[in-house]
Amino acid sequence: MERGLAPGGAAFAAIPWGQPRQSTNESRFMMRIVSMLAVLLALLQAPALAVPVASVVTTGLRFPEGTVFVGNTLYFVDYAASAVYRLDDDLPVRIWQQGGCGANGLLEYHGGLLVACYDDGTLRQITLDGEAVGTVDSTAAGEHFDRPNDLAADGKGGAYFTASGGDEGTPGKVFHMPRSATHPLEVASGLQNANGIALSPDGKTLYLGESAKDRILQYRVAPDGSLSQRQVFIDLDAAGLAAAPRHTPDGIRTDKAGSVFVSLYNGGGFAILDPHATLVSEVALPGRHHSNLALSPDGREVYGTLVDDDPLQGPAGGLYRVANPLLP
């Protein structure tokens, strides 16, 4: 969070005629003293900056991901359990589980939920109670999806989603599934670990986390949903974030003002950028990794995921809640 000093100043008293004049060194010394006092006074008069402190909402999860609000209810997935949960009174309630899916991303979709299955390469549509609705497993041309990761609404009843790509050179991609379509269309390729995805409030800009390069890309969105004008939005390792070996983007969200919230899988918390890629705020969080986040419906709180590495038991995760640092 950027800090600013409240305006402050000091008046220098005139030296009366007939009084001995100070030497140049003494004058400079006195000016430094007065300047230091002025800065101290300004600091004392400046309002205290609120630093949001996160609280852990629930634990006992393995690898939570895919946080999304439907109304006032938070839904999320646990990748390790390949399951979808609903948060009731700060307790996770499992509503759906499918072995082999590797549930990773989640999106409110047509009155229910769309689940990105990272392991089996499919999208599963379910109701809010976990009833199966349908499965999408390929494009119209029969192309399958290599590790579906995260999803974003297109604002027109359709959805975008990322396919991370493989470890053997398979490129990451972005697909768009218009509202009336039965199969998605490939709209971007040539990515290295395509991950979090979000649209600007006006729907004209798409943000994409390229995790292997610790950066966020942006695309221009055409009325038909196609993407163009790819460019680097921000290199997170050069963004002035808290010192860490890497700052790896994972889940991405935007608010109504166009601010971009980036969950840092590596980097200690989440960052907030304005639409011009200027770092606005950074929030440190408990846990080693932070894969996703969601803004509460009133925008006053951020809910997200945290995971710690346990060399014996595997990952141990939970959910956190913290005040939105952009609001008073």
UniProtKB/TrEMBL annotation:
Q: What protein is this chain from?
A: SMP-30/Gluconolactonase/LRE-like region domain-containing protein
Q: Domain (SMP-30/Gluconolactonase/LRE-like region): give its ranges.
A: 63-303
* Pfam families linked: SGL
Q: Which domain of life is it from?
A: Bacteria
Q: Supply the source organism for this entry.
A: Bordetella flabilis
